[in-house]
Every structure is written in C-alpha cells, then in structure tokens.
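Entry for zinc ion complex. Fields follow.
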Amino acid sequence: MEIAAYRVVLIHYTLKDEGGAVLDSSAGGEPLAYIQGHGNLVPGLEKALEGKQGGHTLAVTVAPADGYGTRDESLMQRVPKRALQGSGEIRKGMQFQARTEAGMRLFTVTGIAGDMVSLDGNHPLADQTLYFDIEVVSVREATTEELEHGHVHGVGGHHH
Ligand code: ZN
C-alpha cells in the first residue's frame, strides 16, 4: 500500500542540519506514526513521502519555505517583565504561548535586560534547510476513530 491521504504511516527518521549534525531521530525507539494529509509533518517531507511504500528508504532535503519557515524579524519582540506575570522567575530559554496576528505562537526568551525581556517567536529551525533520512516502516488505512481524533492509535501513536 502506498502513502496517500488519510493513511496511517509509520516511519523511522533522522533529521540533520547542513553540517550533518543530528537534530532529532527515532532510531532506537518506536517509529513515528502520523496521518498523511493532516499536516503532522513539515509540508516538504509529507510531499516527498506521497506515493512511497513500506520498506522504502529515502533521503529528503527540505528548503526552509517547505520546512519551519523563514525568519520573521517582526516576531522578535521586547516586552516588560510584568507582561509575563504569573510565569514565576523568567529565565533565558523559557517558552511562552502568545497570540499574534497569525494565531498562537510559541515564543522563546532570548535575553533579559533590567525589566525588559527579549522574545523570539520564530521556530528554532526557521531558515534552516532540513536533511531527513527516512525509512517507511508500514502504511495502512486510518480507522474512523483515528480520523475523528486526528491522531494515530497504537504503535508510535496514542495509547488510550
Ligand atoms: Zn485518540
């Protein structure tokens, strides 16, 4: 069975950056389970996997525009500490959900100077070309329940 919309796909993946450093990998653990066509993967990877079958291995290069996007300087913001009240002590690297014109976004604290906090709403992998090594483990039809929930049940997915 080939990968097509609304099918459950199990993959093993290794994600590397331009320099070949491993950023993320499923090796040694459960494969990643996702529903094709649900936007669970970055668009460039989902597109490359369309039509592939179980047992297939492939290397996929994903440009930033089809990956985690390009950096948007307007998402670099400075806000007073009091705007983040209720979050306890603010430290570099902490993350906050905030509403923007483009919907909810995750902001990371990149610096603290006096009463001002610098926040970056860009994805940490924005502007980066992504290098994936993929092994398609299996492909099957999604159950009605999985499509209703929007996620996979069983191996690599939710257990409930
Ligand atoms: Zn569920």
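NOTE: The beta strands are 7-16, 22-25, 32-35, 57-62, 76-80, 95-100, 103-113, 116-120, 130-141.
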